[in-house]
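A quick aside before the break. I want you to see a complete sequence-to-structure record at least once, exactly as it would be stored in a machine-readable document. Don't worry about memorizing anything.
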Amino acid sequence: MARPAQVDRTLAAAPQSVAYARALIDTVEPALPPDVRQRARLLMSEVVTNAIRHGAGTAVRVQIRRERGRLVVEVRDDGEGFEPDPSRPDPSQGSGWGVHLVATLAQEWGVDADGGTRVWFALDVADEELHAVALQHHRPGGLSAAV
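That is the input. The structure line, written in tokens, reads:
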């Protein structure tokens, strides 16, 4: 079965939605290089957690797509909207790292706060890298294994 070119899901603004959103990364692109997969899953966790914790809404919309050699993730909450501070958080605090991590690990990112908050990020994924990872998982006889 072919993987979708993009995913668009609306999730409850509840803690259990974080793990579900993180797993959606593999739905769009199962052959991501390990470092890109780890960054995408970490950033998805941070952004969805922030939407749930700070959005004060009832739902979180997650969109993931491949676009011109990039994996693009958008997370929107239906709360009041706010502009997060991307500066380095105080290490003595147990929170405040989400947007800082996005700013550090994503090639591009942004925030819009108009009728809720939308945080998006993009990670570069060269088609050659995807092809190489897919070949690593190819088995003799034409079968391939999902990662």
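Two observations worth writing down. The chain has four helices and five strands. Residues 137-147 have pLDDT under 50 and may be disordered. We'll return to this after the break.
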